[in-house]
Amino acid sequence: MAGNSVDVSQWMEKLPNEKKLKDLVIPGSHDSGTFSLDKNMEIGPDEPNLIRKFGKLVKPVVYNWSVTQSMTIYEQLRSGIRYLDLRVAYRTADKNSEIRVLHGLFGWTIDQVLDEVNRFVANYPKEIVILDFNHFYKMDQAAHKKLADTLDASFSKILRAPGRQGPNVTLQEMWGNEEKVIIIYHDYDVVDTYPCFWPPHLICSPWPNTDDTNQLLEILNKQSEASSISEDALQVTQALLTPQNLTIVKHVTSTLKDVLASKCNRQVTEWLKTLRGTKSHKFNIIIADFVELSDFIPTVISLN
């Protein structure tokens, strides 16, 4: 597909219907809900005890280095994102004990996230959205049930269950069944109870854990050529830098976007452009921070 000149709000609709999910190249967002992080709430349970102890003092720093996206869920989807990375926690301080997105601080409730996904798939019926619930905090069995019931109720008629095909399902089959949403849930007990959810072994997402762009590109290059990639799982490439403690200390008044993400997205996108038309890459889902930067989304889509 061509990249920059196309309307990416419905790019999937323009693909050949025999394409399999695992053979698509899909742009995704890392920590998709962090645009909504709220500095008025307490430090989250994913942070170390020491950070939580000095909450008021360190909260601005936590915020600046935890926000990884600028656009809302609907804006991300409208811009071409089709994979959402969702980390959630049970916040008992809420009047109704809400489940919220989390990354250092709390953000939107899960209902707010799902409302935007539902609005998008209603407006763009041939676009398929993958929701990957991969980190849970302060979630007991009752909280998991609350979340799973909410997901099931929100998408029951449009969910794609893994079935026997898993990632080998074609667009034609999903379109024919009006299946628009895939939920990957990283808890086997929940998946056993809700067979419409995909279990964690159907997705692979290695974490580079570096804040050096050159090192990241080396890792991504190896991943793009990997011959051992499973045919039976979705593959996530994390095209992003992870701030190390020393990096944050050196740039304590700055932000993840200014120090790491802007440069990273620019260099990653330039590298991805060199792979256009080669068909030698093994990419499936590519995620980034601040996905609006450097034509990341249209560049990823152009690899299809």
From TrEMBL:
Domain of life: Eukaryota
Record InterPro entries: PI-PLC_domain, PLC-like_Pdiesterase_TIM-brl, PLCXD1/2/3, PLipase_C_PInositol-sp_X_dom
Gene3D superfamilies: Phosphatidylinositol (PI) phosphodiesterase
SUPFAM superfamilies: PLC-like phosphodiesterases (SSF51695)
A GO molecular-function descriptor: phosphoric diester hydrolase activity
Any one GO biological process: lipid metabolic process
Domain Phosphatidylinositol-specific phospholipase C X: 18-186
Protein name as catalogued: Phosphatidylinositol-specific phospholipase C X domain-containing protein
